[in-house]
Amino acid sequence: MSYLPRTGCVVFLSFLLSCFSACTTDVSITGVARCDAVAQAGENPVDSLFDADGDGFFDAANPDCAETYAVQFLDCDDGDPDVNPGAAELERQSRSPLAPPPAVS
Fold first, then answer.
1. What is the rounded CA–CA span in Å between residue 56 and residue 25?
2. Going by C-beta distance under 8 Å and a sequence separation of 6 or more, which residues neighbour residue 43?
3. Does the N-terminal peptide bond of residue 45 adopt cis geometry, omega within 30 degrees of 0?
4. Exposed/middle/buried for 4, CB within 10 Å: 0-12, 13-18, 19+?
5. CA distance to 2, 6, 24, 63, per residue, from 15 (Å)
6. How many CA atoms lie within 13 A of 2 on its CB side?
7. DSSP label at 98?
8. Is the pLDDT of residue 14 over 70?
9. Can you tell me the distance from the alpha carbon of 12 to that of 19, in angstroms, rounded to the nearest whole number?
10. Per-residue confidence band for 90, with pLDDT thresholds at 50, 70 and 90
């Protein structure tokens, strides 16, 4: 059976301790982020942490955002910057196979 030399164990343990302390210490987050129209640490602009796709509209699924902002500032799909209240409407290119056929007059 092979063993690590004693110096190897010390180096490995030091490495583990440094990883553990680095992973448990986060100096960039000073509090709990909240979608509240108030500038907090790490938010530039205000509530930018709640605009995942960067389109300037806030996550409608977040209860704090829904309570804070009027509906015209809420994004129903915060993962797609092309889907938001300010986006231009796109004409549907083709009829869905599940849609009923057009009415005959």
1. 31
2. 33, 49
3. yes
4. exposed
5. 21, 14, 14, 41
6. 2
7. T
8. no
9. 11
10. confident
pLDDT, tens digit (0-9, with 9 covering 90-100), for 39-48 = 988 888 999 9
What pLDDT score was predicted for residue 60?
Answer: 94
- pLDDT (tens digit, 9 = 90+) per residue, 60-72? 999 999 999 999 9
- The H or E element that residue 8 is part of is helix 6-24
Higher pLDDT, 98 or 54: 54
Residue in 83, 87, 34 with CA at minimum distance from that of residue 62: 34
CA atoms within 13 A on the CB side of 76: 7
Q: Where are the beta strands (DSSP E) in the chain?
A: 58-59, 74-75
Give the DSSP letter string of 68-84: HS-GGGEES-TT-TT-S
Say whether pLDDT at 98 is over 90: no
| Domain range list for the chain | 32-86
